[in-house]
Amino acid sequence: MSIYIQGTGCVSPLETAAEGLFPAVVNPAYDGARLKVSDPDYKQWIDIKQIRRMSRIIKMGVAAAKLSLQEAGVEKPDAIITGTAYGCLDDTGVFLTKMINQQEEMLTPTSFIQSTHNTVAGQIALMLSCHAYNNTFVHKGFSFESALLDSIMILKEGKSKHILMGGMDELTTHSFNIISRFNRFKKEPITHTELLHSTTPGTIAGEGAACFVLGTEKGDNSYARLTGLTTSYKPGSTAEIAADIIAFLAVHEITQEDIDLLITGRNGDSEEDVWYEHVESTLFPGQAVGCFKHLCGEYPTASSFGMWVGCKVLSSGQVPATVLFKGKTREKIKKVLIYNHYKGTHHSLILLTGC
Amino acid sequence: MACEVWIGGGGVICGIGDNLPACIEAFRNMATGAATMEYLSSAHRGTYPVVEVRADNATLAARAGMPAHISRTALLSRIAAQEAWDSTGLGEIRNYRVGFVSANTVGGMDKTEEFFADYLKDPQSGQLSQVVNHECGSITELVADSLGIRHHVTTISTACSSGANALMYGARLIRNNMVDVVIAGGTDALTRFTLNGFNTLMILDQESSRPFDDTRKGLNLGEGAGYVVLVKDTLKELIRTPWCKLSGFANANDAYHQTASSPEGIGNYLAMKGALEMSGLKPEEIDYINLHGTGTQNNDSSEGLAIERLFAPHYPPVSSTKSFTGHTLGASGGIEAVFSALAVREGYLYPNANFGTRMKEVPFTPVTAFSEGNKVHHVMSNSFGFGGNCSSLIFSIG
What keywords is this UniProt entry annotated with (chain B) (predicted)? Predict the structure, then answer.
């Protein structure tokens, strides 16, 4: 059985929501070490009365979901599955702040109601009047990958035709402040063209939402198949992950040579990029390598943006200049491998094949 | 389905017992758990009873073998997961491909609340060790790491149905041969965040809750953790006493409102119907339903009407064990899965406490006394939540 990507939708720091294409102009606006999404006009997808009450993660999640359904030509999917590590941080922060400042008195329910991690998936179901399977994974750097695996397992059961799934996380002032105190972000000013060549620790904080409609049949707008997925939790060494990659490719009856583009999750953190450097230089020497986190920033579900970039490469047959990190692209791009890790503890491999 | 998934054991810690046998004793003695809060610090202490695990964090940490400064949610999780594993007789965890699929709703919020009070005064203050495990996934990993589980670790959060969804995903991992054994369920400690949140919704009862009673006024919040051990059929022989099979499950969305259930309980109905379809059972073959039964007007009415639509005129015995344990949120699906699976093995029917008057909306009443040795071959366990998330599980005799 093949799993086709029938539609994609993405809200990111780039203008990815406009045409559904990889944007021609790329100039992500770094605000110090912080990269915010470029908000599309959400009125296209959401009633204006609802927009006012919604936090950004709900808006971007719903927009990405609707874009992907539109591209797939699907009105009601047979399942809705999201991955979000942090969930609805903004509403959580609002309720927590009021609870503390008001000594637990005179609180209102809206921010509490919208703080639960399944809010985005629930809102999508509500807007689509969709009674189908609905699930939300909240596991750090595996949130998106778990949602993807759940989707694959359900499609394999043969009863579902289209699954809407995606990864999303929002960055708030509180979360940026707090995570900064863990020395996670760059202290010095940096641009998106410099980030991936940085030799200092720390990365750029990001956010976004990327959704996909997966199905077992090739749709009108299917350009890629989701061929494989695997994860590795806390691998002991770079050698272990290299062995995992070779084994993963072997399961799919290919070798490194067959990979036309390797997309890695380089984030400019000199300590974390060691993993990618090892894999790029020992397993894929001289081959084309693409990157994406200089465009979306680092966040636990950033691999969903990486998969979106992989889909765009396969649909256009080209690697955007800003994505290409090293090597020379082949004339025909058929197989894309996405290798991402989050904080060195959550490693994932996603294999896409053009169709 | 290609491969059957067995329940090889289970463990629970909650306000009516530190372990599963203690919980069963509480049912037997009709000893409900709602009481004045002792361990949670809140302005609402005198107003709302809660169902707390009767131990402070230092005591729980000693039992869990984990540091006392980490989230209570992780401590509860570790204790119940360990009991679940030990009950299987499988021996060393490292000898198997094991997954840990745990649910929770607010992660390390109990510690974040402490951090945030300092942080709001000055963004550079507050101890980072209190917020480092804020994420739901952190709680799962603290426990997975301490148990030595690496093959597959993930976290589900679908509000009050989270724990049930962990069992579904775990069963799929086994059917897809990703792992051989999965510890699946959920955990949640009481927090001021959730207590105040439910208070804004005006669905907390100031007395011990009365699920499926016409005079019900709301729910009591509880805390705890509950896990079953899912085992693939080829490993069944190694289990001390296999409890039963997980024969069916389904998840549906009510798609009605972010927090309220539709009056007719469409999501509840679809989840129960889907679970029956997967198990290949007819409604009249279900011997007991462990209700979601929170004790709110809305839930019990929707759930009751959905049961009527699906089961009339053959109503099986039903009860809400939340009348004892309180609503343990992300843990409830896990805790009630353990009770439901054990009911199949032991022929238990659990009582619904505080029941007096039948609900006007439905023609059936819950079981009010504990009994054992009943013919209980198939048990349905319901879990419904915010976001319209509805899940049903069916446990069947092997």
Answer: Transferase
Question: Would you call A125 and B196 a contact, using CB atoms and an 8 Å cutoff?
Answer: no
Last residue of a domain, one of A215, A237, A252: A215
pLDDT tens-digit profile of A209-266? 999 999 999 999 999 999 999 999 999 999 999 999 999 999 999 999 999 999 999 9
Between residues 59 and 78 of chain B, which touch chain A (CB distance below 8 Å)? none
Of B155, B157, B200, the CB nearest to A107: B200
Asked if B334 and B166 touch (Cβ cutoff 8 Å), the reply is yes
Q: Which residue of B has its CA nearest to A140?
A: B137
pLDDT per residue over A271-330, tens digit each?
A: 999 999 999 999 999 999 999 999 999 999 999 999 999 999 999 999 999 999 999 999
The pTM of this model reads: 0.98
Question: Distance, in angstroms, between A153 CA and closest chain B CA?
Answer: 7
What is the ipTM metric for this complex? 0.98
Residues in B touching A112 (Cβ below 8 Å): 193, 196-197, 200-201
In a mutational test of the A interface, the residue from B45, B130, B200, B261 whose CB has the highest number of chain A CBs within 10 Å is B200
User: How long, in residues, is chain A?
Assistant: 355
Residue B313: domain span: 248-396
A281 touches chain B (CB under 8 A): no
Note whether A58 and A135 are same-domain residues.
yes
C-alpha distances in Å from residue A257, one per residue of A169, A241, A246, A314, A338: 34, 18, 11, 17, 15
In order of B189, B205, B223, the CA distances from B39 in angstroms are: 11, 19, 11
Chain B partners of A234 at a C-beta cutoff of 8 Å?
150
Domain that holds residue A205: 4-215
Domain end call among B238, B269, B292: B238
- What is the tally of structural domains in chain A? 2
Structural domain count of chain B: 2
Residues A233, A196 within the same domain? no
Helix (H) or strand (E) holding A124: helix A119-128
Q: Contacts of residue B140 in chain A, CB cutoff 8 Å?
A: 139
| CB proximity list for A11: less than 8 A, separation 6 or greater | A17, A37, A38, A39, A40, A60, A63, A64, A208, A209, A210
Would residue B160 show up in a list of annotated catalytic residues for this protein?
yes
Let me know if residue A220 belongs to a domain.
no
Last residue of a domain, one of A215, A243, A273: A215
Q: What is the CATH number of the domain that holds B95?
A: 3.40.47.10
Cis before B313? omega within 30: yes
Residues B344 and B383 reside in one and the same domain: yes
Residues A268 and A170 in one domain: no
Give the tens place of pLDDT for each residue, B42-92.
Answer: 999 999 999 999 999 999 999 999 999 999 999 999 999 999 999 999 999
pLDDT at B258 over 90: no
Residue of B nearest to A112 (CA): B197
Do A277 and A136 share a domain, yes or no? no
CA dihedral A166, A167, A171, A175 (to 10 degrees): 140
Are A238 and A195 part of one and the same domain? no
pLDDT of A158 > 90? The answer is yes
Same domain, B274 and B361: yes
Q: Do residues A42 and A133 share a domain?
A: yes
Tell me: do A266 and A193 sit in the same domain: no
CB contact under 8 A, B387 and A116: yes
